[in-house]
Specification:
By secondary structure, the chain is α+β, with helices and mostly antiparallel strands. The protein has three helices and four strands.
Length: 146
């Protein structure tokens, strides 16, 4: 009986310790977009002036390196609102990466278009891809001045 109580208590203590561990870096990101290489310039000629309406056009986000591959998107802006998102690169090294991207990318795109923003929730089970998508999309929107 004493052994059972001791085993249960030590197992509970171990579970609590494991759950209290924190990751050493943000979920999914292995590189800074500034170090990942310069993204191509936005499609429209010139950047919008401060305080003016953002220029309509398609803006390419920075390529974001994640644990499973690079994620990069292009955002189309019309009248200051996000109207389309095209995924230029998504993790696709193996079948599991392609499966996760096929599941997550449409959901991320749908949410971004409904919110007209990069302030969206990550897709469960695709946290690395979601983090890369959100950062690349925010980079494109920053270039657009949105």
């Amino acid at each position: 009986m004493r052994r059972a109580v001791l085993t249960a208590a030590s197992t509970s203590a171990l579970v609590v310790l494991l759950l209290s561990l924190k990751p050493h870096q943000p979920a999914g990101l292995t590189g800074d977009p500034a170090r990942a290489g310069a993204a191509p310039a936005p499609s429209p000629t010139g950047r919008p002036q401060h305080g003016s309406q953002p220029a309509d056009g398609t803006y390419t986000g920075a390529p974001i390196s994640t644990r499973y591959g690079t994620v990069q998107v292009a955002a189309t802006v019309k009248t200051g609102r996000l109207t389309a998102v095209k995924v230029l690169h998504a993790p696709s090294e193996n079948g599991r990466d392609r499966e996760i991207a096929a599941y997550a990318v449409p959901r991320l795109t749908q949410e971004a278009l409904s919110m007209h923003s990069a302030r969206i929730d990550a897709v469960s089970g695709a946290s690395y891809t979601s983090a890369g998508y959100i950062r690349s999309l925010q980079s494109a929107l920053d270039r657009a001045g949105v």
